[in-house]
Amino acid sequence: MEIIQKERGSISNANVGWIELVKQLKINSFSKIFILTDSNTKIDCLPYFLSKVNFKQQPELLEMHSGEQNKNISTCIELWTTLSEKGADRNSLLINLGGGVVTDLGGFIASTFRRGIEFINIPTTLLAMVDASVGGKNGIDLGNLKNQIGIIRNPLLVLIDIEFLKTLPQAELTSGYAEMLKHGLIYSEEYWNELKQFSAANMNEVNQLIWASVKIKNEVVTEDPLEKGRRKTLNYGHTLGHAIESYCLSSEEKKTLLHGEAIAIGMILATYISTILCNFPKQKLEAVTSTFLKHFQKEFFTKKDIESIIDLLKYDKKNSHGEINFVLLENFGKHRVNCHVENQLIYEAFNYYDNY
User: Fold this and answer.
1) Taking the model in full, what pTM does it have?
2) What's the pLDDT tens digit per position in 133-161?
3) Most CB atoms within 10 A, among 41, 195, 226, 351?
């Protein structure tokens, strides 16, 4: 059981986290407490959450529809309106109980309502535990474009309890696993090799690996909270991955991909590009590719699909002065940021992926 101290609040694991939550509720004397869930976590996760905390005042429940397609300004307007109608003030607290969509949007709601109220993230998916809920990024999508509107502001507390993982389908667990593999790529080959043994059946091992990923991300975002340098490495594979995710979300012909499924493709592509531009070892490229394809089903992209995906790159958040910036690797844990990649090389990367 551990707790990581941060500038605002902390990241807590399991039993320590529940004690810290009760402590925060006691010392802050919030005027009102609101719990944001989606339609899934209301059923699957809310009962367990309420069984762990004895509230002195009855919290108000807010509910949004589940799914990335609802991480938008319309949902925000509905929730801002509900908060106002229910008498939320600047001393209120919003507890975000859910996956990455809930923690991203809930943090944005809290950071903008009445110019900012306190919020706590309780991630219920593997993806949210190791990525979305940690680091203070809060935001929403602009149409099908990922995370175009947002703010960086840390929650009062992040509480991680792997008991919530028991409610997840296998696809959601695998989606989160992609972000853990990313941590291995950008941090150390040793951690990458540990992750290859990941099995949701061994919850004790899962807990240890999740906590290792949380520590890696916390180290990176603490060093570079505003994403001026090292924090950009957390976007490894995301430049193309987000474009693939957005394209599949908007295309009637493509299957909608979970975030981790799209990012897994993006990381294979980025690692191939890294072998060309940064001399990432080719034998390690083969190992990376085979590991991802062992867990993630291969998708197929036509030349027209790739053209559309490349066109979406202009909306990537790391872009500057009209240039599309990639994060690439020289080796495990050895990165380059702000790399420029020609479109022809992107086509070559897709060809490598399609023909592997």
Assistant:
1) 0.91
2) 888 999 999 998 888 999 999 999 999 99
3) 41
**Which band of pLDDT confidence, cut at 50, 70 and 90, is reported for residue 1?**
very low
**What 3-state class would DSSP assign to 142?**
strand
Q: Residue 342 above 60 pLDDT? A: yes
Tell me how far apart the alpha carbons of residues 161 and 148 are, in angstroms, rounded to a whole number: 29
Instruction: Write out the E strands in the chain.
Output: 3-5, 10-13, 33-38, 60-64, 93-98, 118-123, 137-142, 145-152, 157-160, 326-331, 334-339
User: What gap in Å lies between CA 141 and CA 246, rounded to an integer?
Assistant: 10
pLDDT digits (tens, 9 = 90+) for 3-43: 555 555 577 676 788 989 999 999 998 999 999 999 999 99
Please state, in angstroms and rounded to a whole number, the distance separating the CA atoms of residues 347 and 334. Answer: 25
Could you tell me if 172 and 40 are in contact, meaning their C-beta atoms sit under 8 angstroms apart?
no
Q: Which of 142, 144, 79, 139 lies closest to 114 in space, CA to CA?
A: 79
Task: Locate the domains of the chain by residue range.
Answer: 3-168, 171-355
CATH number of 171-355: 1.20.1090.10
pLDDT at position 319: 67
d(CA 117, CA 92): 6
Q: Are strands 157-160 and 10-13 parallel, antiparallel or unpaired?
A: parallel
Neighbours of 190 (CB within 10 A): 11
Portion of the chain with pLDDT greater than 70, in percent: 94
Domains 3-168 and 171-355 alike in fold: no
What is the Cα 301 distance to its own chain's centre? 24
